[in-house]
Amino acid sequence: MTIITTAATPLITVVIPAYNAEKTLLETLQSVSNQSYGKLEIIVVDDGSRDGTFALASDYSLTDRRVRVLRQANGGVARARNHGIGEARGAYVAPIDADDVWHPEKIERQLQSLQKFPGGHGVAYNWYAAIDEDGVIFGHSRPVLHEGNIFEPLLRENFIGNGSTPLMPRAEVLGCGGYDAGLRDSGAEGCEDLKLYLALAERLPFALVPDFLTGYRFTRGNMSSNAYRMLKSHALVMAPIIERYPHLRRDIETAKFNTTHWYFNKALANRDYLQIKKLAPMMMQCGPQLIVHGLRQSFRLAKRHGLRIARQILRKPSARSKTHFAGAAVPEAGTRFSDRFMPFGRRAQPDIVADGRQ
């Protein structure tokens, strides 16, 4: 990719909310500094950390003058992001959590994807690779191809899937009210990202970069430990949407069921009996739908098993063995995200200040 440095290109503000993130923040900052698009303003918001997060970020700002470090009393990730966005000078904002990482061409390719819209007025997203505590890939997002008006597909499935992926026009984010910090105050933190994405999707078209450009980190136990809170958050986010769009109620209820089912399966796999106890009544409320879903799943599994046997007999390669999708290399489980995508050790635009000058 060609490194973009001309004054005509927009300033992008990267916002990194960080709470007790000293173990992962350096890797996150390096992945941002290594972006091929150099005209960045990088804002780290220390959300009342009690470890060395603030000192680490401050030290890093001495090596990359694009980095600014802000502090606030602990108020949650939504308030930290809003604080950074409020201080931002960029035309676009790109949030990334302090334990996630980016492909070095993520911002550049997202900006290019927005050129299809007049004035670049839209939101860009991409797929992600799921990484563990050591940065090793163990899965990836379903590679959907939704573009343009993605409001209804996003209601059915949060295919963006995390807070470290989108590139968004700052003015529109502010116009939507930013991230809803009130969800945390209600004990329902978790769907602030989805709520903002849905609000933006009612206003703007979305562009897809069909590649796995975000490394989204799952730490031990977090896939099911906050399931009940996440589902409560989802219900609060969806309630006003059902009021505005009653014809979409069934789609939203299906999305709720699918989310509950996913968390329930994860709790079972992790033998998280406390979460199973909390989620079981919610699953029972979806009884008839669960039976239908279970029958469909059983049919799909039986069909898949039959196809595998047939392929073995006929010696045909499995479609699952594909290494590319829509031209993008599919992340391989067991490999490190950094080894595949991010050649650390060099910085694309060293010591660039926020206005893009050397």
From TrEMBL:
Pfam families: Glycos_transf_2. InterPro entries: Glyco_trans_2-like, Glycosyltransf_2, Nucleotide-diphossugar_trans. This is Glycosyltransferase family 2 protein. The keyword Cell division does not apply. It comes from the Bacteria. Residues 13-150 form the Glycosyltransferase 2-like domain. GO terms for molecular function: transferase activity. Keywords: Transferase.
